[in-house]
Amino acid sequence: MDLSVMFFGADDASAGHAAKYGDILAIAKAADQLGFTAVWTPERHFQQVGQLFPNPALLSAALATATERIHLRAGSLVLPLHHPLRIAEDWAVVDNLSRGRIGVSVATGWHSRDFVLAPAAYEDRRERASRDLALLRRLWAGEAVEFTDGAGGRVAVTSQPRPYSAALPLWTTTSGSPRTWEAAGRMRTHILGATIGQTRDELAAKIRLYRDAYAAAPNQPGAPPEGTVTLMAHTFVAATDELAREQAGGPLKAYLRSYVAQTAANKQGVAGSQGARVDALSEEQLGALTAFAFQRYLSWGSLIGSPETCRKSLADLADLGCDEVACFVDFGLGADDVLTSLTRLADLSREAR
Q: Which residues, listed in sequence order, are joined to residue 3 by a DSSP beta bridge?
């Protein structure tokens, strides 16, 4: 099993954004030297959570010049917010800077506020994402594709610069819907999911659904014979379980609380009316909900604990059919704590391969 590092965005920037970017560079360099497979950076807009990450291509370009072997991936890129030509151009630059160390996980987007950047794309964002993913593959392969130009005419253009890699490694991001797992298999992309918010049995069923759909799907340009299942998990490895939970407990609870508040701010919520229900909770109820989520997550799905506890968790995820764990490290811990945890995790990474 591969282990990678994922940034997703804690909301504390009291030390300033410049200092936070310095932390990201330091952690990415350490992950590169310690042998991790990849660094994932997301796309987030106009939110407290994730405020450092408006453009994964831009940050990955910086990381490409600061690292040597680690892969640099968008986790995730909100496809309906962008013209596919812009995506092909930007990531071809990063691909060349990194000498072929890139990957992109595409998402449909979910928060209505993100679509300030493209309000007309919100309602049919799922259809747009599916259409543009196929188009992105064609552009990456060097195919001339027709678009409307400034004079209203149709013109065939080829994306430039040409990428270093012949194929663009693509993931589909899922928030948990079985339909998305199946769709990713049909499109023959890898898949980026998360352990949180579902039981072990539910996750096992979704992985089987994805594998079956992938095996039955026709070949796609640049797609490998088998897809990669990447699962995100909050990660902090300490000397003992007690120390890990003590150090990670406060930051993770605060992060979960901020994430719930962000969900409440979405006009439609995650599932239509969920945002309204969360928004109606009192502070005491919200605190109790966060504490419950934290305890449940510790029981299954996280990599928070001693090396032995995390070793067992990794073995369990491998048994489920997981190929890679994207270790979510920036949920509020200090950079020094994250770096210490990564050193311990590197030993587990070598064992897990």
A: 325
CB 305 within 8 A of CB 237: yes
Does the residue 258 lie in any domain? Answer: no
In a domain, residue 251? The reply is no
Residue with tokens 């995790």: 345
Could you tell me if residue 257 is inside a domain?
no
Asked if 253 and 291 count as a contact pair (C-beta separation under 8 A), the reply is yes
Q: Helix, strand, coil % (nearest 5) of the chain?
A: 50, 15, 35
Instruction: Give CA–CA dist 211/191, Å, rounded.
Output: 10
pLDDT in tens, 118-168: 999 999 999 999 999 999 999 999 999 999 999 999 999 999 999 999 999
From the list 235, 237, 231, the residue with the least C-alpha distance to 318 is 231
Query: How many domains are there within the chain?
Result: 1
- The identity of residue 193, as a single letter, is G
User: pTM for this structure?
Assistant: 0.92
Rounded to whole angstroms, the Cα distance separating 168 from 164 reads 10
Residue 122 lies in a domain: yes
Residue ranges making up the domain that contains 53: 2-246+304-352
The torsion defined by the Cα of 197, 201, 205 and 208, in degrees rounded to 10, comes to 110
- Please report, for the domain that includes residue 61, its CATH number: 3.20.20.30
Residue 69 dihedral angles phi and psi, to the nearest 5°: -130, -20
The Cα–Cα gap between 140 and 84 comes to: 10
